[in-house]
Amino acid sequence: MASRTEALRNVALIGHGHSGKTALVGAMLRATGGKASGKSPETFDAANCEPEERERKHTLVARVHRIEREGVVIQAIDTPGHPDFIGEAIASMCAADIACLVVSATSPLPYHARQLWERAGNAGLARAIVVTHLDHDGVDFEAFVGQLRESLGHKVAPLTYPVTTGHGFAAVRDVLTHHSPRADRFHDWIEEDEAEVDDEVLSHYLEKGHLDPQEFDRCLVPAMARGLLVPLFAVEPANGCGVDALLRFLANHAPSPAAFGPRRFGLPGTAAGADAPFVGQVFKVVVDPYVGRLAHLRCIQGTLRHGQSLVCQRTGTSFLASHLLRGNGKDAVVAHEATAGELVALAKIEHLHVGDVIAAGVADCRVPPLVFPTPSYTRHVWPKSRADESKIGAALEKLCVEDPTLCTRRDTETGELLVEGMSPLHVEVQLQRMHRRWQVAVESGPPTIAYRETIAAPAQGHHRHKKQTGGRGQFAEVFARVRPQQRGDGFVFVDAVVGGSVPRQFVPEVEKGARRFLQRGALAAFPVVDLAYELYDGKYHDVDSDQLSFQIAGERAFHEAFLAARPVLLEPIMSLVVNVPERCTGDVAASLSGIRGRLLGMSVESGVQRIEAEAPLASLLDYATQLRSMTAGEGAFSMLYARHEPVPAPIQAEVVRNRQASLHPAAHAEVSRQDAASA
């Protein structure tokens, strides 16, 4: 029997790694008699069940856990805390109504947690904070709350607080039921936030200086739903301290999906009623090699029933909800219907993707699309064997369906198969998952940088093509000039022939030969850009000249002129935005200078330093790893292509040498042997 919308609480647990999110879910399950056996709070049966998670001791995929308390169903979504897997957290927040930020009292709030916090606020979610690790030495709860209020806003107010911290942390006090100077101070903070719910409440508060108990309780839900109040809870998942108070608040005072209605999703109406036409949004897709595709969705409005006809708004495809499931950790049970606010899954619907909106018929669907960060790390992958070659495309496509922050594409210039992700760890985990699920093994390496070739000076070139093999031969002679163009002007062909030295029908053939040279330059076989090719003279033979002869002569004359025109390599320059803690500013700025970067500007917001810079793409292939090392995992960056610029001469020589070695390995090996022998 589906739960009523008012009796649902959809909570996404977000935060940085090792803050205690998974342990908190285990503690909540144990407190309510749920299935949470395991050797430790972080390793209960339904948590971290994939081999990649157990190996790294990190939650890498989001999971929904159903926790029942006093007739209320709390659908808690445990999300990854590692910043490389932020896509799972972003998608999970679209299914939740409350974002619960889990933070450790032993460390400052990292940039990744701030980023998730801002995304939750922009999505219109109610927000709460759970503070863990209060049993560690040196923890000052009051000072930590002060830091949170300073960085996240003064809407943060404790609902529970520890009697003592450190090894003696064994009890919390509930601000709603306990009276003491400390509790009364926190109670006043909450009243100040609640007073902004509406003008009438504010008027009562200003007149009396406080709210009536009934008015106080009534305003908790709207204050949270409108973002006016951020309740904070002191919890220690390992011993269960504070868990019961958190569950009690979620069951009795936290907003249900009905408090928001479909308007948060951009749909008409004011209530997420069961009688409205069904609308849902996919927030997670799992592609299992045995079960097939499983699409987890949030019921935004209406009721979804088994066998109901639905339409995917992105593709217009109709399908039947023939396999409706309700997930709980790693398990799932058959469901017959789901009401607004519930999180369920549809099995064996092969065309659904994360973010897809599905509806019953032609419902008015204007759900805003999910926005994910752009991948910043790229690897070239190739199959280990011929058997893997036939399966790699389909396997990578399934991984990308599961993870919107993972992309794959074929480079049109190099022909390389590229996998783009958030970091080396992100790509490594996905490739391991591909090998485990679909038995596709791959090798990987850095991608070929999209260099370009151009010239720095004007020059002339000449080539006579003459071939006689008996019978009709081949003949063409071309004289050409090349000159550099402004960056971005591309290639220009100029016909400057006078006197008919090159017949008009052969001029286009010379241009064809020149354009063929543009595809693979003479310096390192990269595309040639930004120059003008002028055909100014030539010779022909009445019998032996033909189209092919002038194509060959035009291309080889271009080759000669190009080498004489001081050829240079152009490398892609990327625009960077780097976000790091203020304490790391000096190290990060120095590192950017060390990779030939240029600082463009800096600004500080809430303790986070934003650095704008430019740097060559060749220097950024492993920058994600370097940045994490410099900032203890708190730094993040994004980049976009800006332009191409000339490569410094010493680096150009090395790039050309390595390129020639990759294109002609046998010749390079022979030269290396000769150099070794002469030495």
Strand order of the largest sheet: 14-13-19-10-11-18-15-16
The CATH class assignment of the largest domain is: Alpha Beta
- CATH H level of the largest domain: which superfamily? P-loop containing nucleotide triphosphate hydrolases
Tally of individual domains: 5
Structural class: alpha+beta
| Helix amount | 25-40%
Query: Which ranges are low-confidence, i.e. pLDDT below 50, for 5 or more consecutive residues?
Result: none
The rounded distance between the terminal residues' Cα atoms is: 83 Å
What fold name stands as the CATH topology of the largest domain? Rossmann fold
Amount of beta strand: 25-35%
Describe this structure in words.
- The chain is an alpha+beta fold and 679 residues long.
- The strands form 7 sheets. An 8-stranded antiparallel sheet has the order 14-13-19-10-11-18-15-16, with helices on one face.
- Helix 13 crosses helix 14 and helix 17 packs across helix 18.
- It is elongated.
- The model has no long low-confidence stretch (mean pLDDT 90).
Summarize it:
The protein is α+β, with helices and mostly antiparallel strands and 679 residues long.
Per-chain topology:
Layout: E1 8-14, H1 21-31, H2 51-56, E2 63-69, E3 72-78, H3 86-93, E4 98-104, H4 111-122, E5 126-132, H5 141-152, E6 156-158, E7 160-162, E8 172-174, H6 181-194, H7 199-208, H8 213-225, E9 230-234, H9 243-252, E10 279-288, E11 292-301, E12 304-305, E13 309-312, E14 318-320, E15 324-328, E16 331-334, E17 337-338, E18 343-347, E19 357-359, E20 377-383, H10 386-389, H11 392-402, E21 407-410, E22 417-421, H12 424-438, E23 442-445, E24 452-455, E25 459-467, E26 474-484, E27 491-495, H13 507-519, E28 531-539, H14 547-564, E29 567-581, H15 585-594, E30 598-605, E31 608-616, H16 623-630, E32 636-646, H17 649-663, H18 665-678
Parallel strand pairs: 1-3, 1-4, 4-5, 5-9, 6-9, 27-28
Antiparallel strand pairs: 2-3, 7-8, 10-11, 10-19, 11-18, 12-17, 13-14, 13-19, 15-16, 15-18, 20-22, 20-23, 21-22, 24-29, 25-26, 26-28, 29-31, 29-32, 30-31
